[in-house]
Inverse folding.
């Protein structure tokens, strides 16, 4: 599918072969704060999730895609549309690149660019939003590059470690719809 293919990465649907990758990413405590996870996931639960991953975005109200380098089919990260609302034509966006060595190489930037295009041109959405912790400078920079604007701050929203952290809500409006 050329819609979801960039210069250095492409986005693809989840496959049964992604079980170990999903298990690793869902159980990596260092990223739990960005995914709102609090407990580990078993391989059994992830297998069940993969069995239902075939559902259409209109049925599941979410779309989770694997981010892959163009020279391999192996996933390096995930990008999601969640809280998909076809009536109001909006969805939330989440992204994670698992390994530190794959971060800051433009893969997340290309993935987000492809997802924005897909959401606005193929799903005909009017808006996307992202909730980002106030100290997550890399994500704030990534989303603002594409025109996401800060529309609000949720004070002391997330309890991380032993402190509360604000969460910033960003929004991107598709003016062409």
């Amino acid at each position: 599918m050329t819609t979801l293919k960039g210069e250095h990465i492409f986005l693809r649907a989840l496959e049964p072969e992604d079980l170990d990758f999903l298990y690793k990413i869902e159980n990596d405590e260092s990223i739990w704060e960005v995914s709102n996870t609090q407990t580990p996931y078993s391989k059994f639960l992830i297998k069940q999730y993969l069995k239902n991953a075939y559902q259409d975005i209109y049925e599941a109200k979410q779309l989770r895609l694997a981010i892959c380098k163009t020279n391999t089919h192996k996933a390096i990260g995930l990008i999601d549309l969640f809280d998909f609302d076809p009536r109001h034509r909006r969805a939330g966006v989440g992204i994670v690149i698992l390994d530190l060595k794959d971060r800051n190489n433009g893969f997340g930037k290309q993935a987000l660019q492809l997802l924005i295009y897909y959401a606005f041109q193929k799903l005909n959405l009017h808006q996307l939003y992202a909730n980002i912790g106030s100290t997550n400078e890399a994500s704030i920079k990534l989303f603002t590059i594409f025109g996401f604007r800060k529309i609000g701050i949720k004070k002391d929203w997330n309890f991380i470690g032993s402190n509360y952290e604000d969460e910033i809500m960003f929004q991107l409006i598709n003016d062409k719809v």
About this structure: The radius of gyration is 16 Å. The domain at 2-173 is CATH 3.40.630.30 (Aminopeptidase).
